[in-house]
Amino acid sequence: MRDLLFTPLQAGALSLPNRVVMAPMTRSRALDDGTVPSMTADYYAQRASAGLILTEGLFPEAMGKGYVRTPGLANDEQAASWARVTRAVHAAGGRIAAQLMHVGRISDPLFLPHGSTPVAPSAVRPHGSSYTDVGPRPHITPRALERAEIKRIVNAFAAATERALEAGFDAVELHAGSGYLPMQFLSSRTNHRLDEYGGDALARSRFLLEVLDAMVAIADAGRVGLKLTPELPFNDIADDTPEHTYTTLMREVAKRDIAFVEVVSTGPVDWHSLLRPLFKGAYFLGGGQTGDSALEHVQAGRADAAVFGQAFIANPDLPLRLLAGAPLASADRDTFYSPGPQGYVDYPVWANADALALA
Ligand SMILES: Cc1cc2nc3c(=O)[nH]c(=O)nc-3n(C[C@H](O)[C@H](O)[C@H](O)COP(=O)(O)O)c2cc1C
């Protein structure tokens, strides 16, 4: 029965051997310069049996950083540190896509060059705090971006895509969820702009689509993906007409023929039923999945692949365990974002894996 999750899937130019995708997850193990240490290569290589690995969010420019010890693709040194990771994943037989994540207003001057004020489509202050090295600090009112600056950020995404390919990534994914910059443009409560980047749903989609187009121009559509989290209230984001906004956006995304979309559905709306029919590329469904629910979704044609987050942290060999119906270990939340190898590279593979291989 579970075999259906282990049939191959073509997503654009990507050939996935199975439909168990590793979710993008920030783990805060990077160094101060935004490069990743060698243990990051071990962490991802341990999870190379995923149909596709989506990395933690990487900032495409320094102004896109919003958390402690997060890595970037904003310069060649950062890219070089990721080349070690992609080599290790490929050597272990895996495929890996870089997630590009610009947090916009969800930052703090302590994370930004010269203590800069975070940027956003409009000067709307988010509720909540940043967790900095000196403790939690309430978010401040961001600075509204000038039009010329928006073009510069789009170019930064293009340059980061170029670095991703040079670093050996198989694809790039734009993070347009979780209340970060593209979602800040998309959502009516955080975008009060009067220029061509604000207004109706299509205008609010413009920034996201320009970034997507810039990534496609570098990587080709077959190596570009998009993450959406409609109605996820995380980071104090909200839209007044989410169904209209996301169907409008998805129709535009579909024209780009990108490899995949990753959708985490929240709220009363059944987003998968609404959005999947609008997109003909591979549809990845995430959020709270189990082996059974993943199978059900793929079987019912509601998704082409399932995305697993926390389960992949604690079960580096998750696909094998799902296939075998083996018990899953649970992840230790205390080490999600802690520095060092603990809770990162020390989760063991399933004890009976050898026995299964011999049987
Ligand atoms: C520790 C942790 C870090 C995360 N960081 C990111 C991130 O950098 N980018 C992103 O798109 N989602 C991030 N997420 C969300 C996951 O990609 C995923 O959508 C979410 O965990 C739901 O899937 P799950 O229930 O299988 O864990 C993170 C989740 C966790 C648990």
Described by strand count, sense and barrel closure, the largest sheet is: 8 strands, parallel, barrel
Mean pLDDT over the residues: 96
Q: DSSP strand (E) fraction?
A: 15-25%
The order of strands across the largest sheet is 3-4-5-10-11-12-13-14
Helix and strand composition category: alpha/beta
CATH topology title: TIM Barrel
User: At the first level of CATH, what is the class?
Assistant: Alpha Beta
Bound molecules: flavin mononucleotide
What's the end-to-end separation, in Å? Answer: 19 Å
The best one-word shape is globular
Quickly count the helices.
Answer: 11
* Number of E-type strands: 14
H-E string: EEEHEHEEEEEHEHHEHEHEHEHHH
CATH architecture: Alpha-Beta Barrel
- Gyration radius (Cα, Å) is 19 Å
**What is the count of structural domains?**
1
Residues in helix, %: 25-40%
CATH homolog superfamily: Aldolase class I
Low-confidence stretches: none
Question: Care to describe what's here?
Answer:
The protein is of the alpha/beta class and 359 residues long. It has a single domain, classed as TIM Barrel (Alpha-Beta Barrel), CATH 3.20.20.70. The protein has helices at residues 38-46, 76-91, 147-166, 181-186, 201-219, 242-256, 271-275, 291-299, 310-314, 318-324, 353-358, and strands spanning 9-11, 14-16, 20-22, 52-58, 96-100, 119-120, 129-132, 135-138, 143-144, 171-175, 224-228, 260-264, 282-286, 305-308. The strands form 4 sheets. The protein has an 8-stranded parallel beta barrel with strand order 3-4-5-10-11-12-13-14, surrounded by 4 helices. A two-stranded antiparallel ribbon has the order 1-2. Strand 7 (129-132) and strand 8 form a beta hairpin. Helix 1 (38-46) runs parallel beside helix 2 (76-91), helix 3 packs parallel to helix 5 and helix 5 packs parallel to helix 6 (242-256). The longest helix is centred in the middle third of the chain and has 20 residues, at 147-166. The chain binds flavin mononucleotide. The site of flavin mononucleotide (FMN) has 22 residues, from strand 4 and helix 9.
